[in-house]
Amino acid sequence: MHCPAHPECNTTCIELFISTSSLPFFVSWLNPLFRIGYKRRLEEDDMYKVLPEDGSERLGEELQRHWDHEVQKAAKELRPPKLTKVLIKCYWKPYAVLGIFTLIEEVIKVIQPVFLGKLIQYFENYDPDNMDALYEAFGYAAGVCLSTLILAITHHLYFFHVQRTGMKMRVAMCHMIYKKALCLSSAAMGKTTTGQIVNLLSNDVNKFDEVTIFLHFLWVGPLQAAAVLGLLWVEIGPSCLAGMAVLVILMPTQTMFGRLFSKFRSKTAALTDNRIRTMNEVVSGIRIIKMYAWEKPFSALVNDVRRKEISKIMSSSYLRGLNMASFFAASKIIVFITFTVYVLLGNTISASRVFVAVSLYSAVRLTVTLFFPSAIEKLSETRISVRRIKNFLLLDEIVKSEHGFLQEEKQEPNVEIQDLICYWDTVNVQPLSPVPPSNFPQSSLLSAILGELPHDKGVLKVKGQLTYASQQPWVFPGTIRSNILFGKALHPQKYEKVLRACALKRDMELLPDGDLTVIGDRGATLSGGQKARVNLARAVYQDADIYLLDDPLSAVDAEVGRHLFEQCICGILKNKPRILVTHQLQYLQAANQILVLKEGHMVARGTYSELQRSGVDFTSLLKREEEGPQAPGVETECRSPCSRTLSQNSEVSHTSSIRSVKDGTEQLPVGPAHFRSMWKKLNLMTTSLNDIGLLTYLCFCVQAAYILQDWWLAYWAGEQEKLNVNGTVTIQNGVNVTEQLNLDFYLGIYAGLTGATLIFGFARSLVMFNVLVKAAQSLHNRMFNSILRTPVRFFDVNPIGRVLNRFSKDIGQLDAALPWTFVDFIQIFLQIIGVVAVAASVIPWILIPLAPLIIVFLFLRRYFLQTSRDVKRLESTTRSPVFSHLSSSLQGLWTIRAFRAEERFQNTFDAYQDLHSESWFLFLVTSRWFAVRLDGMCAVFVTITAFGCLLLRDQVEAGSVGLALSYAVTLMGMFQWGVRQSAEVENMMTSVERVVEYTELESEAPWETQMRPPPEWPSQGLITFDRVSFSYSSDGPVVLKDMKAMFRPKEKVGIVGRTGAGKSSLVSALFRLAEPEGRIYIDGVLTSEIGLHDLRQKMSIIPQDPVLFTGTMRKNLDPFSQHTDEDLWNALQEVQLKSVVEELPNKMETVLAESGSNFSVGQRQLVCLARAVLRKNRILIIDEATANVDPRTDELIQKTIRDKFRECTVLTIAHRLNTIIDSDRILVLDAGQIHAYDEPYTLLQNHDGIFFKMVQQTGRQEAVALLQSAKQVSSTLTQQSMSTSLSHCSLAVK
């Protein structure tokens, strides 16, 4: 990372700036960066390197030291440790010093109105001949201008330093949270979730950035209020107490608004979480939802949650509107009450008194009504976050065990286990716990060996370095090579050997960048099989002593499985101890030792021949359904998806991988956004032009009333001054009479204008929030409906994260941030226009210097926004890796710990944090760079106004001078805030654009058409493919080519083929997930002519990856509520799940965990089978449904299909040939074409055929069993056909 202009001054200039904290340096050292940003797009290399004292590791370890000390001290004193105490101890000194800046700033804010009052007094007592008074007035004018300039400097230096302190606290806390996450025990992981940990890192730590800004105002606020009260007492006497009383009342009101808002926000957050979780399930399971035609119930579910969410958002928006309106009107109410009391007490008003009071109230109002309540609010929010973080930091950690040898030891690596008893959760052993329950003994045994599962009793000794290939393949974002090497040095020969052994050589050739291909979000680039092989290759490449392999063969087809077993497990690893979990019975003979587990107990152990001799028929023990889930070699159910067809995968994944990696950069705006485009986007958002018309009218009325109220006060003071000057009027009869103003008239008009300001102000805020929130609701609904109706291809090309980002971040912006920012911007924009208009009405000549100022401002804004937008983009894109690294680390926690890679992952996390700190630091300093220049321009404007009044002293009145100057002074801070809000609104309009983009997606065919099939269709289940070609997209490769086939009624057809043959594509064509070419008929009805729901509801599918949704078991089985309780229980009985559901707390009404994670994969697959049983359709498609389940569940599924779907046409896609060998016919596909289609036994007679070769690859014993089964099926079919023909003959004879 280099300084853009001079690489050698990389961090020196920053350090010099921070040490001097001088404004000239502050505004100059960033200029080279802005020049580059104006010419071209900024990249990560343009960022300044993070300062050593801001480094993640340094900050994190310092805070960790303090925390460890506090934990030890608390343990001795028998009290809970206090994280707040640790933070104060670590950061109080540098933070306390920054209070000086705030004090100086607030003192000047109090002194400035005094100078202003003295200047106005000169005009009140104007004497053209008194030159001393004039010089004095010039001095006061200079005082007003100088105080404006000093205010700008101190304000921005304070804000920069406190925000940097907040950044340090956040970075240190993130380091600690990640470090803790890497050490969490399995029991602790059950008490938290990935989502909660990510939430700590994304939301809770951000409170440190916010609280540091306001904290000093807790002591500065009361001091400033006391000083202002003293000055006001001197100026207007006891009347000031009335105004201060209003201010004091406003403060708790604002605090109450804040509390109510927090209450609504927490309720909204829970509903938003619920909606996003549902959306996550919808997007993840969209293929299943479409195949089941379940779009409508899910649409109703999301709309229901969204409706509740919007009602809470609307309430909190109204609160926010009232809060903003009361803040906007506060100064008007205070001044009105003060001067009403003042004149009613018999005093006469003067311009100097009026505008000194107005300015003093303005100075204290911001502190008392905004900063002080914000400090209390942010402090309470931070305390909650600190408590949450503390609870996380106190979770149990895993006990680290050392498995290595001592230097002098020369031992054989081994694992010794005796009388071992382990519990996942000793406190609360439930049948459906979130961590893997103990009835999956095989994974639990490996967990115990790894040290992840604490053992209660018994002996477990491990001698040697362990390595582990997890059951669920884990890959982290990075290249394939970095995933395999996993921190080890690259040895080309060894690396090539591992690639070949793990059957990855061919895949590397097919991928665009070979092994340097970047793996996207959760391995989006790779198929399930490829992920499993990369996962295995990682374990093999490590030079370990003992290899724990948790079911690595189930995610690959038979051919690749055999290659992995022979070349890898029994080849490259042949001299190492290996503990293999597997379902593949054909590999048992090669095992040195077989361990059969059942329900957590060892039921048999020995070599293959020993177990056979012992009389234990363990192969049938594995298969018999009544024996329960068990398997050889420590076997478990696999949760990894099998490799999909390459044609679909490679085509989809290559595009998605590139996009997913660049997602953050791709979706953010590049070019400048203009007000014209902003207006267009506002039109997109708002529902009608009437809304915009009403808003424009209200805005005009508010601003007119706002200015007129102050102008009337100035006019009143002017009239009073004229009377004072003219003094007493002598009547002709000699009596002196003092003329007085009509108090009722002036006060009445003043009260009317104040009332109008209040009414229009509140109406504007509420109407604006109402319009913008309704627009957000409308856009969400349009986007969701568009997403539901778009073809599946869209979800293959776009990663889940990108789609969910629209529903979470972008809709979040539209719901909460955009309305508030937009209302704030409009309010400030109109006030700035008002200030300029008032100044121009007093001194028309001011428009001459104002013109170049506006030109400079417009250029400066454009110049700044070019760089600012890039800095914002860099901040956003450098934040993403921090979260994705945390998320992927938590998914692969066992692997990371098994490989002893915690320190390396911690260093990577720190590097990502440092990269984000670079961009965040840049964001802080660029914001200040711009703000300093804007406040500088405001200081010039104040100077021109102040000295302009003095130069035109003969033509202006005191009231007009007071009005113009008090307004000009308010520009400080407000102007730069308004400009930043305008940029913020422009940036947020990008979210509107992104949402609108998703409301215009391509739509699939209609759900219902005028051509409706008969209600009883299909009555037979005859499927005909007539010259069908299929491609997933118009520009994608053709994956089914000119296919002609007929599936007869009630026929059971197996569909086989190598990876990429087009098996799953055939199902996609049948369900019209993309529109096929050619014709598909079901019982004579052309499927392309009927609606998608009419088609999809009439076919049942048991998918490869079983999908359950959050909700009750009843909703998962019957979302349309079409079936009775009896039907549902019967369906569960059929699939042997009735007892499982009856054990649930609320039986059928029990709400399942996210994605049904409290069920095993086998149980989830049985729920999918129960859905098919309930639908009672004539056509059933089984898409590799038993590839991921144990033999018992496989057997149960096959038996249920044979019994319950005897009258149905069943198409089964399978990797396991034993599941389809008893089919009536088998369709063999090769490269999208039919290679063969006949009875299994007939196909096995052709020794050159693909099917025969596939059978041979299963192993000799399995091949013989398959041939025998095929022969039986053939003889049964022959007998059936003979009996059918005999019965026909007898009928003919009769």
Tell me the total number of β-strands. 22
Category from helices, strands and their pairing:
alpha/beta
The neighbouring-strand order within the major sheet is 18-19-20-15-21-22
The overall average pLDDT, rounded, is: 77
Helix content: 55-70%
What percent strand?
A: 5-15%
Low-confidence stretches: 1-10, 19-25, 404-410, 426-440, 621-678
Largest beta-sheet details: 6 strands, mixed
In angstroms, what is the radius of gyration? Answer: 38 Å
Overall outline:
elongated
Q: State the helix count.
A: 44
Distance between the termini: 97 Å
Give an overview of the whole structure.
Helices cover 63% and strands 9% of the residues. The protein has 1294 residues and is α/β, with parallel strands linked by helices. The strands form 7 sheets. The chain has a 6-stranded mixed sheet. A 4-stranded antiparallel sheet has the order 14-13-16-17, covered by helices on one side. Strands 3-6-7 form a 3-stranded parallel sheet, sandwiched between helices. Strand 21 and strand 22 (1233-1238) form a beta hairpin. Helix 7 runs antiparallel to helix 33 (902-951), helix 27 runs parallel beside helix 30 and helix 28 packs parallel to helix 34 (958-999). The radius of gyration is 38 Å and the shape is elongated. The termini are far apart. The model is unreliable at 1-10, 19-25, 404-410, 426-440 and 621-678 (pLDDT under 50). InterPro entries: AAA+_ATPase, ABC1_TM_dom, ABC1_TM_sf, ABC_transporter-like_ATP-bd, ABC_transporter-like_CS, ABC_transporter_C-like, ABCC4_TMD1, ABCC4_TMD2. It is a multi-pass membrane protein. It holds the Pfam family ABC_membrane.
